């Protein structure tokens, strides 16, 4: 009987050690920046292929349409991106994501004024400067509205496109003659 109790006690100690070890790993991971935790980034080509496979099975999959549109934009195919975003807008017209995507496609084609119509609609649907600032800022820069552009880029620094927003902010600052600000803005990326 004492032998059985000793076995159970050892098992409890091992389980407790395992739990403590997992908690320790979780705490350690939480203290490492997310960018350091994610060493793998899917290429735009791989992402587009993956989303197209999903769309082959489910043509109205909203997230796959948005993902395919973003991947197409990243690959420089704004026409394909507009097609994906347009289909996403048909599936979920109250979402700001398709409008923001179409704005990004328009600005990538150099149509800043056309892009602003999409960004205005996306904002009406709930898009925030954090979500659309990197692309809307570029539209503002193309229109010569550099202070508006820089405000949008700064807002986008807190979002998913932070690195691109940082690069665009630095370029906008350099264009307006603020070389020190441009250099300081790029410092975290170097």
Describe the structure.
The chain is mainly α. It is 78% helix and 0% strand. The protein contains eleven helices and no strands. α10 (162-175) packs antiparallel against α11. The longest helix is centred in the first third of the chain and has 30 residues, at 2-31. The protein is globular and about 50 Å long. The termini are far apart. Mean pLDDT is 85; it is low at 15-39.
> What would you call the shape?
globular
| Distance, first to last CA | 65 Å
Strand content: under 5%
Number of helices: 11
Low-confidence segments: 15-39
Which structural class should the secondary elements be placed in? Answer: mainly alpha
Main attributes?
78% helix, 11 helices, mainly alpha, 190 residues
Question: What can be said about this structure in brief?
Answer:
With 190 residues, this protein is an all-alpha fold. It is built from eleven helices and no strands.
Would you spell out the secondary-structure blueprint of this structure?
Layout: H1 2-31, H2 34-37, H3 44-57, H4 62-74, H5 78-91, H6 96-108, H7 112-124, H8 129-142, H9 146-156, H10 162-175, H11 179-186
